[in-house]
Design goal:
By secondary structure, the chain is of the alpha+beta class. It has two domains: 121 residues, 2-Layer Sandwich (Beta Polymerase, domain 2), CATH 3.30.460; 69 residues, no CATH class. Helix content is 43%, strand content 20%. The chain has seven helices and nine strands; from the N terminus they run E-H-E-H-E-E-H-E-E-E-E-E-H-H-H-H. A five-stranded mixed beta sheet has the order 2-4-7-6-5. A hairpin with a 6-residue loop joins strand 6 and strand 7. The chain starts with a strand and ends with a helix.
Amino acid sequence: MHETVRLLEAAAALSQQLRAAGVPHAFHGTILNAVLSNAPLCDEIFCIVEGGNSHPFRRVRQACNGSDDFTVTPSPWNNRLHAIYQRLIPPVEIEILPAGEEGPRRLDASTTMNMSGVPFLTISEFIRAKLKAWSLRRLERDAQDVAYALSRYWDRVDINRIPDQDMSEFVRQYPTAAPAWRELRRKYGMR
């Protein structure tokens, strides 16, 4: 577990590097629920990066090139990139994900929101990304994130961004999410 404040500091520093390079990005992971709930600890932070004319990983490496605060380390066995914020001890590692893989393809005002000066996925996109991850991996952490965000913030969710079949399966396995899903469907006139 990491302290949420430390992860936010690392996210803000990486965001500054990416913004200066003109790279669209947004953070997500358990850090989003931690920020929303003022939880002191969380255990996951991702940064989704748009590609543009080059691969997202290249864009991150270029944005962090020459920085004393970041080292960028590839993980060739799983095709991942990690930006390691070295200003804190112990260092904070942020996993970089290409946009469209576990989040939206486009990171703009309709898919991101600003919290604590850092761009995060909107609640709808966060639930969509976590639901997709849960559908693939069936990790309890992903399920808890979906259930928490849906039950607390269902009225801020765009149902058009949530895959109905995946959510129906999720609600069957996690009945605590059923009341929020029902309310969201009712809000959109669905039965």
